[in-house]
Amino acid sequence: MEVLIVRVAGGDAYYKLGISSLIINQWKGKNKKVRIVPDDAKTYHLSFDFDEEVVVIHSTYFTGASHASQLTKLPWGNIYVPFNCRRSTLAQIEGKISRILAIPDWKIPNDFDLINIIAHNDLKRYQQLSSSEFMIITFIGQGIDCNLISKKMDRSIKTVRTHYRSACRKLGFDNQADFFRFAKYISKNSQGVINALCL
Fold it and tell me: What's this model's pTM, rounded to 2 decimal places?
């Protein structure tokens, strides 16, 4: 039986219950089961974190590996998807959850690194961040302003702002506060590669 381990963290019980129900409804099948674990659980395939407005996808979910057995063997860790659903419709939330739950169907081998995963087959249909956009997100998350970013990257301020706007659009942010919160989270959890998905 295929067991999906899901952590739904955050203070809003209604969000948690709603998301858990949507995941259970979409993860259907004779040999499929969802196990919801507590907020403080360290072992999971997916973590929906409402305090940070992010979905954390553990690398074992991409490969379909057994989480416990493969946790220390894989060379890369988590991938992050913005999940700011406060202004989203139910259909939009269901669509994003559906795309996240479809990840195991990509059948990515264990030896792929994160860069290859994000460039791999089915991900090409999503607009993924360029290396410049991801670098700018990381700098913004560290509290660095556009002037200093342009000097660090040896790019004009206009180019930096264009990359910033493009990253906002791809990630689905319509306000700066949400974008900055996600950028801060990414800068703390960056593994030196593009580890954010635009789903």
Answer: 0.80
Question: pLDDT, tens digit, for every residue of 29-43?
Answer: 778 889 999 988 888
**87 neighbors 174 (Cβ within 8 angstroms):** yes
Question: Which residues make beta-bridge pairs with 49?
Answer: 9, 54
Cβ atoms within 10 Å of 85's Cβ, excluding its own? 19
Beta strands in 43-178 (DSSP E): 46-49, 54-58, 78-82
Helix/strand/coil for 63: helix
Q: What is the DSSP letter of 74?
A: S
How does pLDDT run across 66-107, given as a tens digit for each residue? 444 444 444 456 888 898 877 788 998 999 898 888 876 665
SS3 state at 137: helix
Count CB atoms within 10 A of the CB of residue 199. 22
Phi and psi at 127, nearest 5°, equal -80, 105
Q: What is the pLDDT of residues 126-150, one digit of tens each?
A: 668 888 999 999 999 999 998 999 9
Q: Tell me, rounded to whole angstroms, the distance of Cα 173 from its chain centroid.
A: 14
C-alpha to C-alpha distance for 165 and 155, rounded to whole angstroms: 15
